[in-house]
Specification:
The complex is a heterodimer. Chain A is of the alpha+beta class. Chain A contains eight helices and four strands; from the N terminus they run H-H-H-H-H-H-E-H-E-E-H-E. Chain A has a four-stranded antiparallel beta sheet with strand order 2-3-1-4, with helices on one face. In chain A, strand 2 and strand 3 form a beta hairpin. The radius of gyration of chain A is 29 Å and the shape is flat. Chain B is mainly alpha-helical. Chain B has helices at about 1-20, 25-40, 50-70, 75-80, 90-95, 100-105, 110-120, 125-135, 140-160. In chain B, helix 1 (about 1-20) crosses helix 2 (about 25-40). The longest helix of chain B is centred in the last third of the chain and has 21 residues, at about 140-160. The radius of gyration of chain B is 18 Å and the shape is globular. The chains are: A alpha+beta, B mainly alpha. The interface between A and B is large, with 46 and 46 residues.
Chain lengths: ~230, ~170
């Protein structure tokens, strides 16, 4: 009985993250399974969703910082001293001096020991590579499949667009433009200075929105829908 | 830096603003956050999302700012008490909808509870990420979130909304 209660308490603490969609797959499945069979837990989950909605609403009404924050930042960056190249410690010179301090006999013995160690190490590495070759191939294939799956999931909602900003548009204009269009930057810069942005709508509404954005040539150099 | 700033500065600003409750201070702090990022870019190891790294720096800056002006920090009791004393829970319900009351109570939480609620619900941070940002163990993250929600339920009850939990 205690075990059942502990499991339920544990699941209940996870409800806020489940509402936000940030649980890992294993925990999300545990919670989903419990919600399907527990009406009280489902009711509490709905309370968490209510809190989530109002927290988002509250934060979204906080507005954005003025241009002063950005101006202050870039003024501070401009005022920073130029970064110095890394100081060289003349490692080769120090090593040469260190080796020169040994007698020829000591050096000969050290060199022989070093050569033996290299031969042994090569043997161990070769054996290891042969044993693990098959396993690495399987892992690599799985990794490629997972990346393909993630990429598909990322673009499947139809709200993405590819955009290149006008060369003369500054960060303030770009920020205001993204805010005004309720767009968020997802990726970039890619080849050719292209960024991926997410728009609040998909389908025909997105196409119309993109046309409106394209008209703002002072900021937008190029924009197109991205599937 | 411009792209990084454009992408993240609004959310970082809101996170800081919810902690320090002063727009001017929040603006100054986000400038400092991104300046630190510019200076320390080489130290970012990519073990966490950039936004998690930014929020951790922002949190440190915000708490330092709060420590410099402890008298100005409102505690949850003070904020929870900001209402018309003639309002009974019933009349309050008549005047405001439930959503507005929940938002008022979210504002009335302590800084520690506001912070965790925002990180989980608004900034969409996982248990592990919240632990990284706040610098506490993952189990403590879950416990703190539970107590933040419990406190929220108490504030709602005082406003006439009984949720039957916890």
């Amino acid at each position: 009985m205690n075990t059942i209660n502990k499991e339920r308490d544990d699941l209940e603490t996870l409800l806020p993250w489940h509402a936000a969609g940030t649980l890992n797959r294993r925990d999300a499945e545990r919670v989903e399974k419990a919600l399907a069979n527990d009406r009280e837990l489902l009711r509490r989950f709905n309370l968490a969703r209510e809190e989530l909605n109002e927290t988002i609403h509250l934060n979204e009404t906080l507005g954005a910082p003025s241009a002063r924050a950005m101006e202050k930042l870039f003024a501070a960056i401009d005022a920073e001293p130029a970064r110095k190249p890394k100081v060289s410690f003349d490692l080769a010179g120090r090593l040469a001096g260190f080796i020169a301090s040994f007698s020829p006999r000591t050096l000969a013995l050290a060199a022989a020991a070093g050569a033996l160690a290299i031969v042994l190490q090569a043997g161990v590495i070769t054996t290891g590579l042969i044993r693990h070759e098959a396993g690495t191939e399987v892992a690599s294939r799985q990794d490629t499949a997972a990346r393909t799956e993630m990429a598909s999931a990322d673009v499947s909602d139809g709200t993405l667009a590819a955009i290149r900003f006008a060369p003369k548009a500054d960060v303030g204009q770009i920020t205001a433009f993204l805010l005004a269009n309720k767009a968020s930057m997802i990726d970039g810069p890619l080849t050719g200075g292209i960024y991926t942005i997410r728009l609040p709508e998909s389908g025909k509404a997105k196409e119309d929105h993109i046309k409106q954005m394209q008209a703002q040539s002072a900021i937008v150099d190029f924009i197109a829908t991205k599937q | 830096m411009q792209v990084l700033f454009a992408r993240h500065h609004v959310r970082v600003y809101r996170f800081v603003l919810r902690l320090v409750r002063d727009e001017s201070t929040a603006e100054d702090l986000i400038s400092e956050v991104f300046l630190d990022v510019w200076r320390q870019a080489g130290r970012f190891e990519g073990r966490s999302a950039v936004s998690t790294w930014l929020l951790a720096i922002a949190r440190f800056k915000a708490l330092s700012a709060l420590r410099r002006r402890p008298d100005e920090e409102l505690d949850e009791e003070a904020v929870a008490g900001i209402e018309d004393p003639s309002d009974t829970p019933e009349t309050a319900l008549e005047k405001k909808d439930k959503s507005a009351i929940i938002r008022k109570c979210l504002t009335g939480l302590s800084a520690e509870h506001r912070e965790i609620i925002d990180l989980v619900y608004y900034h969409e941070k996982s248990v592990e990420e919240v632990a990284l940002i706040v610098g506490i163990p993952e189990n403590t993250v879950k416990t703190r979130m539970f107590y933040a929600r419990k406190r929220l339920a108490e504030l709602l009850k005082a406003e006439g909304i009984e949720r039957g939990w916890p």
